[in-house]
Design goal:
The protein is an all-alpha fold. It has 18 helices and no strands. It binds a DNA duplex through helix 3 and helix 9.
DNA sequence: TTTCAGTCAATATA
DNA sequence: TATATTGACTGAAA
C-alpha cells in the first residue's frame, strides 16, 4: 500500500500492508477527491448543519463501514487499479513511441498554439502572506465588504476583483467551520468539567493562534470570537442548537441516518432528528447508556459515542469521549500508540486490527509526538478522535451479522 | 444578485 | 508519496 509508505513511520510499522489512503478511499467510496476527504475528516460539520448533499459522503462512509469486507474490497480495487495503471502505462509507452514516429506527419497548422490545453488552463493564484494579511485586516473591519471596498482592495493589492470576492467567501466559510468545531469543543469541555486542564488550554490556544483565521471575528464581534453582522445570527443559532440540543456530528449521525433509512423508507432519508425512534437507534441509545460517565447527554456530538471495543482501556475510552474537541487523550506518542493496540471485539481479531490499522492510516494521525506546531497537533487530535470512532464502528460493523450490499 | 455549502484541483508540506 | 491547504467554481437558497 502506497499509504503505508507515507511520512508516518509508525503507521508503516503498524500496518505495512493494509493502509488506506484518502485518495483511494475518497475516490472509490465517497466519490470525492483527496483534498475534499482531507477537509471532511479534519473539519467535520455538525450533522444538523449539513445539507442533504453534505451528508451524502457520511452516509456512503457508513455504508462502507457496515460492509464486513470493506477493506478487502478496497484492497481489491486498489490492486485492480494498479493493474490497470500498469497496463495503461505499458501501452502508452508503446503508443508514445509509435506517436513519436508518426508525429512527423501531423499537420501543426491546425492550431496556432501547439498546446492549447496548457494555454486554456488558468494558473492558480497564490496570495502572498502580506496580501493575506491585508485581506484579513480588511475582513476584521468588514466581513462583508461592499463592492466598492472590494474594488479598492483589489486595486491596492493588485489582485483581480474576483480573487478578492472569492477570498472573502472562502474565509467566511472556513471561519464558520472553525467556529462550529470550537463550539463543540467548548460544549464538551464544559461537559467534562475539564476546561481548565492544561490540554484544554493548549487546545484553545492552538486554535486561536491558528486562526489568524479567527482574528477577524475576535475583535469586532461579540465575545467568544463570535462574528458580527449576518454571520453572528447564524453563529448564535448554531450555538443555541449545539448547546441546547445535540451537537451531533456527521460521523455519528451518519449511522443514525443510515439506520433510520433502513428502518423507515418514509422518513426523510438523512434527517437524523426524525430517526430517533428507530429500533437501531434504540440499540444505539442502549449502548450509549453503557458508555463511560464522561458522556452524559444523549445525542451529544461524537464525544459521547461509546466505544464498546475499547471499554476498559482508559486511554482509548477517553479519546472516544472527546471527538472533535481536540481534548482527546492522544496527547503523546505514548497514547497514540495505544490507539494502534486497541483490542478488537470482532470475531476475527486479526482482521479487525488490520481494518483498524487501515483506517488509522487513512486518517493519518499516528505521529502524535512530532514536533509540529500546535495547529497540526490540534487537528491531529481531532482526527484521532474521529478515527477512534470510525474504528469502533468498523468493528461493530464487522461483528454485525446482517449483510449489507456493497456497491461501488 | 448575493451568499453559502460543497467540491475540485493545484500546490504546499511533511 | 500521502496529506493539508486554499483559490476557484457550481448550484441552490434567500
Amino acid at each position: 500500500w502506497l499509504t503505508s509508505l507515507k511520512s508516518s513511520r509508525r503507521a508503516r510499522k503498524c500496518a505495512p500492508n493494509s493502509a488506506l489512503g484518502q485518495r483511494l478511499f475518497g475516490e472509490t467510496i465517497l466519490g470525492l477527491t483527496q483534498g475534499s476527504v482531507s477537509d471532511l475528516l479534519a473539519r467535520p460539520k455538525p450533522w444538523h448543519k449539513l445539507s442533504l448533499k453534505g451528508r451524502e459522503p457520511f452516509v456512503r462512509m457508513q455504508l462502507w463501514l457496515n460492509d464486513p469486507n470493506n477493506v478487502e474490497k478496497l484492497m481489491d480495487m486498489k490492486r485492480m487499479e494498479k493493474k490497470a495503471y500498469m497496463k495503461r502505462r505499458h501501452s502508452s509507452v508503446s503508443d508514445s513511441q509509435s506517436c513519436e514516429s508518426s508525429s512527423a506527419g501531423i499537420d501543426y497548422s491546425q492550431g496556432a498554439s501547439p498546446q492549447p490545453q496548457h494555454q486554456l488552463k488558468k494558473p492558480r493564484v497564490v496570495l502572498a502572506p502580506e496580501e493575506k494579511e491585508a485581506l484579513k485586516r480588511a475582513y476584521q473591519q468588514k466581513p462583508y465588504p461592499s463592492p466598492k471596498t472590494i474594488e479598492e482592495l483589489a486595486t491596492q493589492l493588485n489582485l483581480k476583483t474576483s480573487t478578492v470576492i472569492n477570498w472573502f467567501h472562502n474565509y467566511r466559510s472556513r471561519i464558520r467551520r472553525e467556529l462550529f468545531i470550537e463550539e463543540i469543543q467548548a460544549g464538551s469541555q464544559s461537559q467534562a468539567g475539564s476546561s481548565d486542564s492544561p490540554s484544554a488550554r493548549s487546545s484553545r490556544a492552538a486554535h486561536s493562534s491558528e486562526g489568524d483565521s479567527c482574528d477577524g471575528v475576535d475583535t469586532e464581534g461579540p465575545p467568544e470570537g463570535k462574528p458580527s453582522g449576518p454571520e453572528a445570527d447564524e453563529y448564535s443559532n448554531a450555538t443555541t442548537k449545539s448547546q441546547g440540543g445535540p451537537a451531533e456530528s456527521a460521523f455519528e449521525a451518519g449511522e443514525e441516518a443510515l439506520q433510520g433509512a433502513r428502518s423507515s423508507e418514509k422518513a426523510e432519508p438523512f434527517q437524523a432528528e426524525s430517526l430517533e425512534d428507530t429500533d437501531d437507534e434504540g440499540r444505539l441509545r442502549a449502548q450509549r447508556q453503557s458508555s463511560p460517565p464522561a458522556s452524559q447527554r444523549p445525542g451529544e456530538a461524537l464525544e459521547t459515542l461509546p466505544n464498546s471495543a475499547t471499554e476498559g482501556d482508559a486511554s482509548t475510552s477517553a479519546a472516544s469521549t472527546s471527538v472533535l474537541t481536540g481534548e482527546s487523550s492522544y496527547k503523546s506518542k505514548e497514547s497514540s500508540e495505544k490507539i494502534s493496540s486497541v483490542p478488537s471485539t470482532s470475531s476475527t481479531p486479526a482482521a479487525g486490527s488490520q481494518k483498524a490499522n487501515s483506517l488509522q492510516s487513512l486518517f493519518g494521525f499516528s505521529e502524535a509526538a512530532s514536533s509540529r506546531n500546535t495547529r497540526d497537533s490540534s487537528l491531529r487530535k481531532k482526527k484521532a478522535a474521529n478515527l477512534n470512532n470510525i474504528i469502533h464502528r468498523l468493528e461493530k460493523a464487522a461483528s454485525r451479522e446482517e449483510a449489507v450490499e456493497w456497491e461501488f
